Each structure stands twice: as C-alpha cells, then as structure tokens.
Amino acid sequence: MALDTQALDQVLRDFVFCYQVLEFLPHAQDELLAVKENQPMLRREIEHEFAASEAARPFHEQAPLQLS
Hints:
Blueprint (H helix, E strand, L loop, with lengths): L4 H33 L1 H18 L12
C-alpha cells in the first residue's frame, strides 16, 4: 500500500492549523473582553482620528456632516 504524501501533508497541515487555533482561543477571549471593556474609549479614539483625518482633507472631499 503506497502512502499518498500530498494527502498526508494536508492532514498534517490541517492538524497544525487546528492546534494553533485551539491554542490561540483563550487569548482571543481575553482580547475580546478587553476590547468590550474599553469600547467607549476606543470609540472616542476612532472618532478623534476620523475627525483629524477629515480636517486634513480638502473641504470638497470631506464626508457630509452627520447630525445626530
């Protein structure tokens, strides 16, 4: 019986990928919780960065004013 080396290689690659995902999951959950806790601060940072980038653009290229 001959071994299909391409199939074996793919199985090993899939196994390694799954192992890496499983190894990363606990860290990903911690990262998501940190982002959720810092969401208001991150939103202000994003809004500030957007405002600064809009101010740097020529007036005719700026996004329309959003009234909320």
